[in-house]
Amino acid sequence: MTVYEGAILTVDAHDTVARFLVEREGRIAYVGDRLPEEFRDDERVQLGQGALAPAFVDTHQHLASFAVFNDGLNVSSARSNAQIQQMVSDYARHAEGSMLLAFGASPHSVGEGRLLTRAELDEACPDRPMMMVKYDGHACVVNTSLLRRIEGRVGGLRGFHADTGEMNQEAFFKTSDYLTGSISLPRLVRSIQRALDCLAARGIGMVHTVSGVGFAGDLDISLETWLARSAQAGMQVRVFPQSLDVRTATRRGLPRIGGCFATALDGCFGSRDAALLQPYEGTDDRGVLYYDDALVTDFCRRAHDAGLQIEVHAIGDAAFEQATRCLEVALSADDARGRRHGVIHACLPTAAGIERCARLGIHLPMQTSFIDWPQEPDAYLATLLGPQRAARLNPLRTLWDAGIVLSAGSDAPCTDPDPILWMQRACNHSVPAQSLTVREALRMCTYHGAWVSFDEAERGSLEEGKMADMVVLSGNPYKVSASDLGSLKVERTVLQGRPYAGQTQGALAAVARGAVSRAKA
Q1: Could you give the 3-state DSSP secondary structure of residue 59?
Q2: Which residues are registered as beta bridge partners of 209?
Q3: Of 49, 51, 207, 295, which cross-links 476 as Cys (Cβ 3.0–4.6 Å)?
């Protein structure tokens, strides 16, 4: 039994701040201002100037992809393509595996103002196949060694550019499938182990992963499903298969479906394939709406009738309209509200779509890291969309005041899974009137995340009887100015009452064996 004394940020219905919390056998035995006599002799943790809060929830992440990229080369800090070339050259000398991977390239964070070309990637890595994924996860550049291997698979697909080595849209997805198909099971297990440890170090105790990104036999879905059921070291994993085939979820006994890739309705701004109602600034191009309404509505009906919770990717306003319009056609208001369907990203919502979300109870897993994002700066988005339309991006205050449940996700590996950053950006919106309060931002990152996956009875707030999933913060966010939220640190993550100590290789290997045997069956 452990007694925590200090600022206890419960994130309950009243945002109560208590003085004491008692953990017993993994659950919260008491929360309040006066410590009962029966607990007075128990081990005590003094929080000092810090605070205890619920563990954070990442409601949109590509766990298997993040795991693989987390073990690769991150070039997001580079400020020139020459620097990226040097990073690639150094990495290639010691990296393991038959194929190399880098991530985070952006034309907006380097002096040249463009992506590295195939020829430049060849200079840095001439002999081994290499794929450099763009920051938004929707495009990549390949070197000649890799191009030779995939040209027969991707040549002729939309988005194939042999001259520059850049792969977009269908060509990118097929290239990504080739990469994931080359990863061995032991390597994937090790990568997921390290990724979960990384998440816990950031205070994340639950992750909603969208899976199905080209691994043979949907191995990532099977592996993550078994990992979720084993609840290693207290970490909670909720799996959304990225598929339009309802059976992908039902045959695994999963209660939810959706995400990006196959269930993405459009692309993204950086690749100019986010679907817009009006053209990109100075062009006739409205982006790409991947499916027509009939297909999306049919998918929503089938998934809903199968008892599944649905999430779809929509970044542009045309895609957001389609998502909310098709959910409205497919479902009655009462049915939709009880199922907690969601629209991921929702970067450019429409007034009509916002009204539908509020009426149907559609929640929005959003990425506040996209606000003033160095890899895709606000100034760049203004050139794509025009200043007035860019000012309507990620309107947190408008959505919150409409009564829509907002949760926070990283979209990792696209952005770093950093809940402190999520809060800081949510409270310091580039359009100040769209900022949330600190208390709202903490609720967005904790309780709402648990609510999204129907876990709010057990997690998401610090209340008596719930699981003791908690983070110790270096300071009290309620007493820090919004502009200083980024200075907070996660000092300790406690899951099911125990300080997180990492996964064990043996346990994960057992999970992997179970996943593979079930997949074969």
Answers
A1: strand
A2: 61, 239
A3: 51
Separation of alpha carbons 57 and 199, rounded Å: 10
* Residues in CB range of 141: below 8 A, 6 or more apart: 105, 115, 116, 117, 118, 121, 131, 132, 134, 164, 165, 166, 167
- Per-residue pLDDT at 512: 47
CA dihedral 475, 52, 11, 315 (to 10 degrees): 70
For residue 138, the model assigns a pLDDT of: 81
391 secondary structure, DSSP code: T
What one-character-per-residue DSSP string does 112-177 give? TSSPPPHHHHHHH-SSS-EEEEETTSSEEEE-HHHHHHHHHHHTTSTTEETTTTEEEHHHHHHHHH
Residue 259, pLDDT score:
95
**Number of Cβ atoms within 10 Å of the Cβ of 447:** 25
Classified as helix, coil or strand, 18 is strand
**What is the per-residue pLDDT for 333?**
65
- Convert 482-518 to b/e letters by CB count within 10 Å (16 or more is b): beebbebebebbbbbbeebeebeeeebeebbebbbee
Q: Which residues of the chain have pLDDT under 50?
A: 504-507, 511-512, 515-521
Give residue-wise pLDDT tens across range 227-244: 777 656 799 999 999 999
User: What angle is formed at CA 373 by the lines to CA 114 and CA 313, rounded to 5 degrees?
Assistant: 95
- Give buried/exposed letters for 38-47 (b at 16+ CB in 10 A, else e): ebeeeeebeb
CB 136 within 8 A of CB 268: yes
- The helix/strand/coil state of 397 is helix
Q: What is the pLDDT, as a whole number, of residue 80?
A: 96
Can you tell me whether residue 29 is helix, strand or coil?
strand
Which pTM value belongs to this model? 0.90
Phi, psi of 34 (to 5 degrees): -125, 120
Tokens of 185: 């099971």
Sign for the pseudo-dihedral over CA of 239, 245, 246, 248: negative
3-state secondary structure 449-515: HHHHCCCCCCCCCCCCCCECCEEEECCCHHHCCHHHHHHCCEEEEEECCEECCCCCHHHHHHHHHHH
User: Are 439 and 448 spatial neighbours (Cβ–Cβ below 8 Å)?
Assistant: no
Cis peptide preceding 413, ω within 30 of 0: yes
Structure tokens at 43: 């081990």
336-355 burial code (b ≥16 CB/10 A, e <16): beebbbbbbbbbbbbeebbe
Q: What is the pLDDT of residue 519?
A: 44
Within 8 A by CB and 6+ apart from 145, the residues are 122, 125, 126, 127, 128, 129, 130
Give the pair of three-digit tokens for residue 52: 């205890």
pLDDT value, residue 60: 98
- Residue 360, classed as helix, strand or coil, is helix
pLDDT value of position 219? 77
Rounded to whole angstroms, the Cα distance separating 398 from 395 reads 5
